[in-house]
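Batch job 17 of 40 flagged for manual review because the log was empty.
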Amino acid sequence: MSPSQGLMVAANRDEFYDRPARAPLLWTEGAVKILAPRDEQAGGTWIGFNSEGVFAGITNRFGAAPVSGARSRGELVLRALSYGSAEEARQSFLRDGALNYCGFNLAVIDRQSGFLLWMTGDENHIAELSPGLHILTERSLGTMDVARERVIRAKIKASADVDSMLSLLSIHHESLGEGTCLHGDTFGYGTRSSMVVDLDESWALRDARYSEGHPCNTRFEDFSELFHALDGRYSLAREQD
């Protein structure tokens, strides 16, 4: 992530197979339009973009103590996407916090800045997200288990492109928690969907792909037109070519 480098996001969603959800669609959060898939059980989302050029994505946090009466973590992505910039969202979280949730790792990014917010049971932590490669899983940010991050870093290419990112989302490993494409069929749990989005240095869209199912055996569909309908900023690259 960098204002000079643009943004490439490659993300899987691991969830119970029977939890209802919808593929990316346009909807409104407050006064801001967003493009995001939707959790039909709790009404939130785990990843998305808004019409102001803000990206937000969240993971669970492995090993975090449960929070009594916790709200859905999908609300936190909607909260971040309701702001006009990553900095506005950061100020909101600094001011009001996000304590009534089970453990999470949240990333929020726009062209100017980015930050990470994470919850360790009873305390929020926040840090600036510097330019460069970042790998965020439910075992990141101090959970003391970075095996999956090591697997991903070993396979990532120096010059990442969309095709290499699609491949990165389909890594299988003999240890269920170390691959990126999970098939926990015995538990009714695994990788439910995948997304790759590539924005250039002006935040204009180069590519957008989405897969509803395991990325290793499900076709990725182009959903660029939804970005173009979200806001004109995402269409500038194609208009100038």
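Reviewer: the log was empty due to a logging misconfiguration, but the result itself is present. Helices lie at 74-81, 86-96, 147-155, 162-168, 224-230, 236-240. Unflagging and moving on to job 18.
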